[in-house]
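Aim 2 progress update. The chain analyzed this quarter is reproduced below.
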Amino acid sequence: MSSAEFLIWLERFRSPFTDATFIGASGLGSTEAYMVLLTGIYLCVGHRLGFRLMLMFLLSAYSNALLKIAFHTKRPFDIEDHPFHPLSEASAAGYSFPSGHAQNAAVVWSLIAIRQKSWRVRAPILLLIALIGLSRLYCEVHWPVDVVGGLLIGAVLVVVYLTMLGWWHSRGKRLSGGQWAVVVVGVAGLMYLVGYRDEVCRQSVGALLGSGLGYLLLDARGFKAAAPLMTQVLKVAIALLVLFALQRGGESLLGDAHWAAALTYALIGFTAAYLLPVFFSQFPVWRQCISGRQFWGHHA
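Predicted structure tokens:
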């Protein structure tokens, strides 16, 4: 069975329910979905874990964009006189190989799964990775080789990351905050020079620069993610409103210049990694003000 025949065979399973299921699964692999997930982890679980996941997501998105340019593969619905009936075409910009949805899912969710001690938690996470990859085939926006390639490349990135992390820890050496800042700026600058022609690369570089510097400042200052449930919900809701507003506002105000995307996402990254956590660290003060303790005193 050829790749085209396999995609057409998948159409046999289409129904309103399966369409909604797989379009929803595809949506879980979108940039917006990862913004929600990583923002929530950074603010509510731990900024160090959140930044590591954010860093790997950005490196995955950047490398995926470069690979797509290198392989220059047409998507199924871009083939002349194609027999396909694609769904969710808006999520399928650019070239086809490798699948960004599959690669990013393999990177982010694998790292989350590795941290889990129980296979009762790991198994659903691994199933989610497979579901996101399969959704891209069901929607006929990728070839099978794109999804398999994306999963394998994502797995390689995870192995390289864990190997380098183990090697770094084994050295027992640490860099100062200033030295790390130089590394962040240097790496971001090199990545920009290589990928500045691609919009996803520019966005990834900007977000890496902003979030990297923001994380270093926050880590030096200190930040406790723990908070009551309703406070956590409010933190994430406010953060997402601010970040999506910055995203839309930056695109509208700065236009299509090459540097505009990098600048917009640098601001988004710095806001998410430093400004918002510092702002949310004042929540205890807010609660005291609301209860009247700051104004009236404890014995009012």
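The CA atoms of residues 35 and 180 lie 24 Å apart. Confidence is low (pLDDT under 50) at residues 290-300. These observations will guide the mutagenesis experiments scheduled for the next reporting period.
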